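My current task is to audit a protein record that another person submitted. Thanks in advance; the entry in question is below:
***
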Amino acid sequence: MFEMGLALPADLDAILDLYREAQAWLKSKGLGQWQPAGVSQVQHLKQVRERIERAILTGTCYVARQDSRVVATLTLDEFADPEFWAPEDRPEEALYVHRMIVSRQAAGRDTGKALLDWAAAEAARQGKRWLRLDAWQTNHALHRYYVRQGFRHVRTMNYGHRGSGALFEREVGEVSSYRS
């Protein structure tokens, strides 16, 4: 299917291409997710580029390659956004998925499921109990997708300055076996 590995600095442009593709697709669906808010598209993409570059340099950005082509990406780290995850959630017991993107060409082939299973296995390997993520509040199709992948909806945080805030978690013991 594909091979998972750490993203390399040389992968930055391919990851940004995935982001732009996902951004256009989300916009075509009428969703505000990943659309610039209060800044130009150029400035927005510059900010995204900086975040992805930082994740690559810190070793938390991963890519899925198929025939040596980047077909998906995610960032997996211990960053529990304090606006979303409170101390009583025990944020230290989880790894967090950020910016998971599957190319439109690889969509519909369980690539996302395999990425999430891989991330859950990595969380278990690191001794974590949970795999967590936050999703765009109004992307209900994405919420249903995460539930189908074994996540439970924890709560939705509504902030005027953020579109994300639907919080999901999955016990890593619920992982199905990952195959690449």
Remarks:
- The first strand starts at residue 3 and ends at 6.
